[in-house]
Specification:
single chain, 270 residues, alpha/beta, Rossmann fold, 7-stranded mixed β-sheet, two-stranded antiparallel sheet, 10 helices, globular
């Protein structure tokens, strides 16, 4: 993939999120399904990283995750390619008084060499920001020099099979049911189209190479609806609670851990 193609694709993604920046926080804050998934990610990260750890947040958006970690004893540097998202992140940092613990920078995944080496304890990315990248090795090669010895990689990515989406085949929604199967689809956002790529844990492990060991794989939303569906949890709270408990029981079990809306892939530097 050439740099010109990368630039063109990333520019489209950046513009789509620029147009969406003013609405982004409202959607995620009023989505109980997404809030539940986010809390599960936080519990996973904090079970592995001691307070005081320094986190590199890739595709940080408006800083939702960065601020949570900053409020719970971590230091975070977030990068993103959307000026609109970063403007909101800077505003929130001032409002929350977290400017010293949560910092933000306009950087592409391919320009991380501008950052100092050996400074981060964890490379973190949540809810599919990295699914906009065609080759994860491009990101891994840029991030690798920035990580300390024994650092962790914790990425929540969309996998090529989602059980809930696939079940939509029974309702005649064939495109939704099968859109991930080829490993690539097109997203329509804010009047713009851009490609999205779906990754297995094995592909993530391959991208990082032999110096990193796969520690765990966990699914987010196998039995519960995908993150974009907030109405189910609101309209059917009892059913949602039941499915959430079932989800908790299945998230780390084979084969269900590969079948979620997202997969939390965790690696550790040897």
């Amino acid at each position: 993939m050439t740099n010109s193609v990368i630039g063109s694709s990333f520019e489209t993604v950046a513009e789509a999120y620029n147009r969406n920046a003013d609405k982004y926080d409202e959607f995620i804050e009023n989505n109980p399904n997404l809030m539940r998934m986010r809390q599960k990610v936080y519990a996973h990260v904090t079970s592995l990283l001691p307070q005081g750890s320094r986190i590199l947040d890739l595709a940080c958006g408006t800083g939702t995750d960065a601020f949570w970690f900053a409020q719970h004893g971590y230091t975070v540097h977030g990068i993103d390619i959307s000026d609109g998202m970063l403007e909101r992140a800077h505003e929130k940092a001032k409002q929350l008084g977290l400017e010293s613990r949560a910092t933000f920078e306009h950087l592409s995944y391919t320009d991380l060499g501008k950052l100092n080496e050996n400074q981060f304890d964890c490379s973190f990315s949540n809810f599919g920001g990295l699914n906009c990248v065609e080759d994860l090795r491009l990101v891994a090669d840029q991030v690798r020099p920035l990580l300390k010895r024994n650092a962790r990689v914790i990425w929540a990515l969309m996998p090529p099979f989602c059980l809930w989406e696939s079940a939509m085949f029974l309702r005649g929604r064939f495109h939704l049911a099968t859109r991930r199967f080829s490993g690539k689809s097109t997203v329509h956002k804010e009047g713009l189209d851009y490609p999205v790529y779906y990754y297995t844990p094995h592909q993530v492990e391959q991208a990082w190479g032999k110096d990193f060991q796969l520690e765990s794989v966990r699914a987010l939303s196998v039995i519960t609806p995908p993150a974009t569906n907030k109405d189910f949890a609101i309209k059917r709270p009892r059913m949602f609670e039941f499915l959430s408990r079932l989800d908790d029981a299945l998230e780390s079990r084979y084969p269900f851990k590969y079948w979620g809306d997202f997969t939390i892939v965790t690696l550790r530097r040897k």
